[in-house]
Amino acid sequence: MLSNTCRYAVRSIIYIGIKSSVDQLINVKKIASELDVPMQFLSKILQIYVKAGILKSFKGPTGGFSLALDPYSVSLYELVKIIDGDQIFETCVIGTKPCYSKNSNSMKCPVHDQYSAVRSQLTEFFKNETLGAIMDNYANKTDDFLML
């Protein structure tokens, strides 16, 4: 459903959210090592979130990343949309072009009606699930972030 890039990104942001603080930044080398993600690739992904205002980045020997926003104000939808766009929440499950027209029902794909309800639920879930809630769930269950 989500691209590998998006999964790496979300896992990394959760990791940063849990491990960083005002006094402790998390560097990309540590994140890449802990989550088994290629460091150069991860660095590029995280810079996208810095540009989007989700993360802060600090350079230098003690530099690294921290969250720029209250994690309870950042939805999973926002995190996914930044990397994968919102097509997953709008397009046909079997990969056709948008399978409906607002002005006509004649262009529906064979699974449109069944998937439409699922897609609505999925969209609601992603919009209502916050980074903070996800971090809380991890913090309450385990310290093993390799499971992310």
UniProtKB/TrEMBL annotation:
A Pfam match: Rrf2
InterPro entries: Tscrpt_reg_Rrf2, WH-like_DNA-bd_sf, WH_DNA-bd_sf
Origin superkingdom: Bacteria
One term of GO molecular function: DNA-binding transcription factor activity
One Gene Ontology cellular component: cytosol
PROSITE patterns: HTH_RRF2_2
PANTHER family, sorted: HTH-TYPE TRANSCRIPTIONAL REGULATOR YWGB-RELATED (PTHR33221:SF15), WINGED HELIX-TURN-HELIX TRANSCRIPTIONAL REGULATOR, RRF2 FAMILY (PTHR33221)
Protein name, as recorded: Transcriptional regulator, BadM/Rrf2 family
